[in-house]
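Proteins fold reproducibly. Take a tokenised chain:

. . .
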Amino acid sequence: MADLVWPRQCGGCESTRSRWCARCAAIVRDALVAGPQRVQPDPCPPGFPPTWSSVSYDGPIAHALKAYKDGGRADLLGPLSQLLRTALAGALDAPPLRGHLVRGGAVLIVPAPSRPAAYRKRGRHPLLDLARAAAPELPIVDALRFGRGVRDQAGLDAWSRATNLRDAVGLRRSVAGAWVLLVDDVVTTGATLVESRRALLAGGAVGVSAATVAVTRRRASSEPFTPRATLA
């Protein structure tokens, strides 16, 4: 029973040294020092928003995200939220969002939608919790929902993911007049971000950027981004 309440295995590599071992902590630390990177899928689907990420989705990071979302490892919120916070800083400091902020425009943090079945199984919205931990000083709105049933995206190719999500996302809360910073755990094919962006713009958002914890290694990225601002 104690292991369920206070896990003894590392959430990244499953070693028994600690819940989050020094080696996995070093991966996060190195990513924070390197700073966020602007990323995009390859091929990049039409409508993909400007997106920043902090680390590759493999090894301990991939394991930690899966454990956090579906393995009951809420204790991994700390290191994962640090990575998301860095990606958010990259998005906030990049044009045209930076110009929108300078002009006094409103910004909302919006997590990608969760399937109702996944929410019932987990009993929580992991991305919403992650966004709140990463940017407690910014307004966060759970504005997106699935308007129809969709399949789990795991194991689907790019075409199947896009087809699965097409016209599936709608709004539960208004985003009119705000720039939306969309939050997700990982960029794979970009289908979730594309469909979410469509729904947000249709709902009156003036622009959409995105930030994710990780990006799949098989995806291409553009030049490294060196942030000039941080979330203080």
The chain has one domain: 35-224. The beta strands are 37-39, 51-56, 107-111, 144-146, 169-171, 179-187, 207-215, 221-224. Confidence is low (pLDDT under 50) at residues 219-230. The domain at 35-224 is CATH 3.40.50 (Rossmann fold).
